[in-house]
């Protein structure tokens, strides 16, 4: 694995292609980025796998909300991991918590077995876990490759102190992937202040729908969300972030 990684979080084939062409080192593929990301469809994964020669880690999260799952939800997660492995995913992005906020070790062991041969990222369930250092050590024992985290704050800059402490505690045993509001400026600031070399971003922009006819008074989801706005990765944002990351590398 490269020591310096820019991971683009994408929820469509269009965004994946844009991110790859702009220089992203890796994709985290999901669906429903507007609600924090859930498991993508088989169709979008296989299409991106065919058209993008980039490492793909797939988010496996069956629903919006917390990370404490019913038995049925857990089985869905396990089966999705097995299916994405069969289809050629390079890794999965997963996480299960207990009601007390600790990592559910027994369930995570089962998911790690299902993911055997793939890299595993512990997603931002980490950011709502009760004890980040205990969770980090549990992740290391499980053989997890990467922790995706904003430092348990709403952005990685606000969580920078914890990110610094996590990077020190990791001691090279597990990668700390900084997330939350990441852009070129944030990479420059965070990279200079902490030993962070891996960043996760969506680089999204809001586009107007191509629909000319627009029906008012009909919402497919939350009334606060417009049906005529589309989120898509902005190539320039990825390019600028990649340049900022390269500037952090030792000359």
UniProtKB/TrEMBL annotation:
Localized where?
Answer: Cytoplasm
Q: Name one Pfam family in it.
A: CutC
State the Gene3D superfamilies in the record.
Answer: Copper homeostasis (CutC) domain
What name does the UniProt record give this protein? PF03932 family protein CutC
What species is given as this protein's source?
Diplocloster agilis
Instruction: Tell me if rRNA-binding is a UniProt keyword of this record.
Output: no
State the Gene Ontology terms under molecular function. Answer: copper ion binding
What SUPFAM superfamilies does its record include?
CutC-like
Q: Which residues cross the membrane?
A: none
Assigned protein family: Belongs to the CutC family.
Keyword Ribosomal protein listed? The answer is no
List GO terms (cellular component aspect). Answer: cytoplasm
Note the InterPro entries from the entry.
Answer: CutC-like, CutC-like_dom_sf
Name the lineage.
Bacteria, Bacillati, Bacillota, Clostridia, Lachnospirales
Q: Which UniProt keywords apply?
A: Cytoplasm
The main location class comes to: cytoplasm
């Amino acid at each position: 694995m490269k020591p310096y990684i820019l991971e683009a979080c994408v929820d469509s084939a269009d965004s994946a292609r844009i991110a790859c062409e702009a220089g992203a080192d890796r994709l985290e593929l999901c669906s429903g980025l507007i609600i924090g990301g859930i498991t993508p469809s088989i169709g979008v994964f296989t299409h991106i796998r065919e058209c993008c020669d980039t490492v793909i880690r797939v988010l496996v999260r069956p629903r919006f909300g917390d990370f404490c799952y019913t038995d049925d939800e857990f089985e869905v997660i396990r089966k999705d991991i097995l299916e994405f492995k069969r289809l050629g995913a390079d890794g999965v992005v997963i996480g299960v918590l207990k009601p007390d906020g600790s990592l559910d070790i027994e369930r995570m062991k089962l998911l790690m077995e299902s993911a055997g041969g793939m890299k595993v990222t512990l997603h931002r369930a980490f950011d709502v876990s009760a004890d980040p250092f205990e969770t980090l050590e549990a992740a290391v024992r499980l053989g997890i490759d990467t922790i995706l985290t904003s430092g348990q704050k709403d952005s990685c800059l606000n969580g920078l102190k914890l990110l610094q402490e996590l990077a020190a505690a990791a001691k090279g045993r597990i990668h700390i992937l900084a997330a939350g509001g990441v852009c070129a400026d944030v990479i420059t600031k965070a990279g200079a202040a902490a030993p962070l070399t891996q960043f996760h971003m969506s680089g999204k922009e809001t586009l107007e729908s191509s629909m000319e006819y627009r029906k008012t008074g009909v919402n497919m989801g939350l009334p606060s969300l417009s049906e005529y706005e589309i989120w898509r990765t902005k190539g320039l944002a990825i390019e600028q972030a990649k340049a900022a990351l390269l500037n952090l590398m030792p000359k």
